[in-house]
Write a sequence for this structure.
């Protein structure tokens, strides 16, 4: 009789729990283990996009997408684990934009923070907050949240750059806003070079000025960043994981360039064989110079090796073990979601010797 009563009670309990779900009430005891894993298990996977594969597609897009739609001539890097979601990781969005000579992209603004790492071409510009910034290969240009920005290419050749945005983060919070047309009268102009003079010379305005949420410097020329890396390599020990790595910094705080994204430039010296490493941040890499290999260990323990060269891109989701190797000198640009994790007290790393 007891077993029959128990079975009856279990059936009754199951019916009750089903009834809870029908009323949009979820029994925590059924789902808690899945909500609290012992360590991160990213849904995103590591993936590699070769420039030799996608460059012909950029050229075809240039033929098929008109100048009027040039601001949308972007090929997005979509993680295989997120089909149809236009994201490279759970928190980051990335793609390659291609602008032909004579084309412009009208100013607009949005809640998402963005960065641009210039891949190739000269003669083009980005306008951010009314100031024009000339583009050169390897430059990093920021677009803080809600800053008006547009692009133009009065030069003779095509220009391509990597776009990185925190779009999935903003979408998750339900705080997406966008204005696709300039305000009446246009965006107030600032003299070219103003941001660099105020925040990019190792000096700051002497008068009190509010600390900006994102870096007010906006433009980080490659010639300066690459020179700093070369100098670092002359007199500093090689980091066993990153080689020589510098973070792009907010001039007022010394911290990351944006509240949701950090960016780095790193030099892998000739013959570099890095140690395995993992951290909770998701990393998107762009190969600025040279060639090499990166080995990534998936959550199932399987190893994948990306053999990369200039202008290739690859992504490493958070908490996956990886290591870099370079037979000859190579330079990698990367960006990640580390600042947001640090603000929340979540960022963690493990170095293996």
């Amino acid at each position: 009789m007891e077993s029959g009563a128990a079975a009856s009670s279990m059936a009754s309990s199951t019916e009750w729990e089903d009834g809870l779900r029908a009323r949009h009430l979820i029994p925590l005891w059924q789902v808690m283990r899945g909500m609290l894993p012992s360590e991160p298990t990213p849904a995103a996977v590591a993936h590699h996009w070769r420039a030799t594969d996608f460059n012909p597609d950029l050229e075809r897009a240039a033929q098929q997408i008109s100048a009027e739609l040039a601001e949308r001539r972007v090929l997005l890097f979509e993680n295989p684990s997120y089909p149809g979601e236009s994201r490279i990781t759970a928190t980051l969005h990335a793609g390659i934009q291609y602008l032909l000579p004579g084309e412009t992209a009208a100013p607009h603004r949005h809640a998402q923070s963005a960065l641009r790492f210039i891949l190739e071409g000269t003669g083009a510009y980005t306008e951010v907050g009314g100031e024009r910034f000339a583009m050169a290969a390897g430059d990093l240009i920021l677009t803080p949240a809600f800053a008006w920005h547009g692009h133009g290419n009065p030069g003779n050749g095509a220009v391509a750059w990597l776009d990185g945005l925190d779009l999935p983060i903003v979408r998750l919070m339900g705080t997406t806003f966008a204005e696709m047309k300039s305000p009446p009268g246009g965006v107030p102009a600032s003299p070219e070079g103003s941001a660099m003079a105020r925040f990019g010379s190792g000096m700051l305005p002497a008068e009190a000025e509010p600390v900006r949420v994102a870096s007010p410097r906006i433009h980080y020329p490659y010639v300066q960043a690459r020179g700093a890396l070369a100098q670092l390599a002359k007199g500093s020990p090689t980091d066993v994981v990153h080689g020589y790595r510098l973070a792009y910094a907010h001039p007022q705080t010394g911290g990351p360039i944006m509240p949701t994204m950090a960016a780095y430039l790193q030099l892998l010296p000739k013959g570099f064989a890095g140690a395995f490493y993992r951290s909770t941040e998701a990393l998107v890499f762009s190969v600025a110079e040279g060639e090499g290999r990166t080995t990534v260990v998936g959550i199932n323990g399987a190893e994948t090796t990306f053999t990369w060269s200039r202008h290739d891109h690859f992504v490493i989701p958070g908490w996956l073990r990886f290591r870099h190797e370079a037979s000859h000198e190579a330079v990698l640009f990367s960006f990640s979601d580390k600042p947001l994790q640090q603000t929340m007290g979540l960022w963690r790393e493990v170095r293996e010797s």
